[in-house]
UniProtKB/TrEMBL annotation:
Protein name: Extracellular solute-binding protein
Residue ranges with Low complexity bias: 38-49
Organism the protein comes from: [Clostridium] leptum
Source species, domain of life: Bacteria
Record-linked Pfam families: SBP_bac_1
Amino acid sequence: MRRKGRLCALIMALALACTGFSACNSQGGENSSSTEPDSSAQGSSDTAAADTSDEALSIHYLSARGAQEGTMQSLQKIADEYKETHPNFTYETEIIADRSSYLQKLRILASSDELPDWFDSDADSFFAELVGKDAVADIGALYDELGVADDFYTVAKDYQRLSDGFLGLISWQANTEYFWYNKTVFEAAGVTETPKTFDEFFAACDKIKAAGATPVALAGGDTWPLLRWAAFVPFRTRGNEFIEKARVGEESFGSETGMEAANFVQKVVGYFQEGWSTADSATCVNLVTTGQAAMIYDGTCNCLIS
């Protein structure tokens, strides 16, 4: 959320706190835009009279989320309700389904100082650069000002913080990640039990591959799924310590733990679908639900709405 859009942030942050939102990564959807009509909304008899004294306020939200995703629909509902008493308010969404294309446009806009009022981001090095340029709002301070910080789950706030503790991102949802699998594909390949260890996992992959199906669907175009696979071994051997230190340059993937992670990824890549490096989550979920692939590691934000 850019710094100039602070008033926009005040409006929505308070509304979101009241409706109990918390955090997740983006999901792709159809390219689309949705713009509120310019005419004033006519409130019902139990709605406060429209405040025509308000100066014009507009929010342009650039997102890689699907237009039909619950988050986007909820935000639209909040905007519609706000407009009933603030006729000079407009809310517009611009959706770019492909994550790589979305990030490319975001970087172009940032380089020309034309960031939209709202945009999706992770707490990564690019976002840290924007913070360093004072280009985004201080959401942590905003939460404190509104008195709503305690209304958000701690993990939803901490997940979005930079390494120095700065919070410049609003969390929309709370989700969890799982290994999802197609039972029919398992049965056809002779996999009779759900793998409980990685040795069992790789044994199952071999059977599935031999049966002619893709063992694992991977959305490499979304970047984060492959990073999860790279973190599986370090997390199981050293908890969060290795990844946290590697992120700030205090650990190396050339270390023993790092090489174990690299070897693990090198092995599992052989079970991904063709073209995995540019695939998005929606495509991969479809591969599993249609039986072309057996498994996917993904979040409830993507799989439960598919």
